[in-house]
Amino acid sequence: MPASSFVSAGTRSQSFHSSNSSHSKRSKTLSYRTISRHSNVDENLFGLPLHLKERQCHLTDQDDSFAEDPDIIITRQKLFKPGLLREEYELQKENQKRRKIRHLTSDLVRNLIIPSNCIDKKRIVIPPEKYKELLQKAKLLTNEEEQFANEQEKSEQKATLEAVEQRKQKMREYDLNRVRNERLTDLEEEAKKQAESLLQKALEQRQDQEDEIKALNEWILNAKIQAIRDEQILEKSLIKKEMAEEELRLDNMMELERQNAIHIQEEIEKKRKQQVAALFEFYY
């Protein structure tokens, strides 16, 4: 292998390391500056979705039915013709795709796209009003302008909600007036009278039942009070009985302790007398 190849390889490695080091330095020094927290894009800039384009490309040269705005006109190239065979159509469609070639070198493999002479017929025609609207949307607002726009939007929403509520209230009033002014039929009049009579009877029965319920509630309350009082009296008598039994038990314990103490004292006195008598006999 010639020496020039080693030199070129060494130079390539040095240049690669130097480029990596410079790139790392730039990444450390440079930082992304945030301009806006939100990203808003007008969908008219992208035209129709791809599946709609593929479905409509062989039907019409100009069709604006799928556009988001009726002012936007989308033109497409017409591939399929009535007298064209299916194989020829597929071949023409395949030829319109971008062709690629693969370029092989000693250290790199690249896929190159061959430029096509065919101009893309897909384009979007936007009227001046829509273009001005897009420019207005793309304008960067200051904090004061953004705050003013938000306040204006809130006020508009509030006004819209108030108008909706007023319309709802008017519709309710119209319905009430219609129901009040509407003349009832004979069957409806009879049903209304029966309902009123049934309601009056139900109110009277309810009032009578309320008096009976009040009396029953008083009796139940008195019974509960009497039961609680009897329970308290019984509990009080039980407590007195337990206290008397406890006092009697304590008295018995104290009496037993006293008798034991007297018995012990008598034993001590008896032993002392015996010792004195023994000493007296020993000396005399």
From TrEMBL:
Its main location: other. GO terms for cellular component: motile cilium. Keywords: Cell projection, Cilium, Coiled coil, Flagellum. Residues 1-10 have a biased composition (Polar residues). Residues 11-22 have a biased composition (Low complexity). It holds the Pfam family TPH. Residues 207-275 form the Trichohyalin-plectin-homology domain. InterPro entries: CFAP45, TPH_dom. Residues 131-219 form a coiled coil. It is found in: Cell projection, Cilium, Flagellum. Residues 1-33 are annotated as: Disordered. Belongs to the CFAP45 family. This is Cilia- and flagella-associated protein 45. It comes from Schistosoma curassoni.
